[in-house]
Amino acid sequence: MLQKKQNIFIHILGGLIFLSLPILFSPELNHHYTIINLLTSQSIHRPMISTTLLLAFFYANYYYFIPKFYITEKYTFFTILIIISFIVFLFLPDIFIEEKRIDTLFQNNLPHRPPAKCLIAY
């Protein structure tokens, strides 16, 4: 009973640490943001969704996919599930979060300047 409670505690603690990694490594953390401003920042949403999906993928594998398909030697179906999970992990954050690219972010804010003249003669 004590071992089971320790395992649950370790999993919860590990999951919380894993979910906090995007916040700890966020570039906005150095700009004296409050935690509310940091969590509502656009740049933190995609990494948070990705780490949440990775954690969900881990627990789906640990508790469901491996015991049901890998241990019972249904390798083909297990491989298909892993590939589908990888595709979901790869594209689902892009569906929910519209990334603002750097080139389009500043495109409308800067005045139009003519190209600089070349100072080097060929």
List the helices and strands and how they pair.
Blueprint: H1 2-24, H2 35-39, H3 42-70, H4 75-96, H5 102-105
Specify the overall morphology: flat
* Domain module count: 1
Helical content class: 55-70%
Structural class: mainly alpha
Number of helical elements: 5
Order of helices and strands: HHHHH
State the distance separating the first and last CA atoms. 81 Å
The number of distinct β-strands equals: 0
| Sheet having the most strands | none
Mean pLDDT: 79
Uncertain stretches of 5 or more adjacent residues: none
Overall radius of gyration: 22 Å
Strand residue content: under 5%
Polypeptide structure, described:
The chain has 122 residues and is mostly helical. The protein has one domain (9-97). The protein is 68% helix and 0% strand. It is built from five helices and no strands. The protein has helices at residues 2-24, 35-39, 42-70, 75-96, 102-105. The longest helix has 29 residues, at 42-70. The chain starts with a helix and ends in a 17-residue tail after the last helix.
Give the tags.
single chain, 122 residues, mainly alpha, 5 helices, 68% helix
Task: Explain briefly what this protein structure is.
With 122 residues, the protein is mostly helical.
